[in-house]
Amino acid sequence: MRRLDESTYVVYYDGDLFRAYHSDLAEMPLASVQDLNSNDRKFAYVTWKLSDDEKRLTLRSVDKLVPKETRDSAAVAALLTKNARNPELFGEEIEFRKEK
């Protein structure tokens, strides 16, 4: 992971390149993640939590909320804000550890 500016990161994971940036909504720490290797470059949304020692990053994907037909960022933001406290919409936690 490399920081480009205050809110944008480039992430290389499992052979794929992603662009990620903060898009917090409704007091929910959220990142918008775009797969730069795919032709359509669609976005995925994940909640994130950084450990106090900043060595572990935990992500949970937003799985069932945003219909594929949704193309307007305002509509996506409204759906995420409305459902921010619904734990059934989020996938399993995935933890990443900082390597030296």
How does this model look, in words?
The mean pLDDT is 84. The longest helix is centred in the last third of the chain and has 10 residues. The chain has one domain. The protein is mainly β. The chain has a 7-stranded antiparallel beta sheet, with no helix packed on it. It is built from 1 helix and 7 strands. A hairpin with a 5-residue loop joins strand 5 and strand 6. It is globular and about 40 Å long.
Largest sheet: 7 strands, antiparallel
User: What is the H-and-E element order?
Assistant: EEEEEEHE
Q: Any low-confidence stretches, pLDDT <50, length ≥5?
A: none
* Total number of distinct structural domains: 1
Write down the oligomeric state: single chain
- How do the strands line up in the largest sheet? 1-2-3-4-5-6-7
Using only C-alpha atoms, the radius of gyration works out to 14 Å
The end-to-end span amounts to 12 Å
- The helix content, as a percent range, equals 10-25%
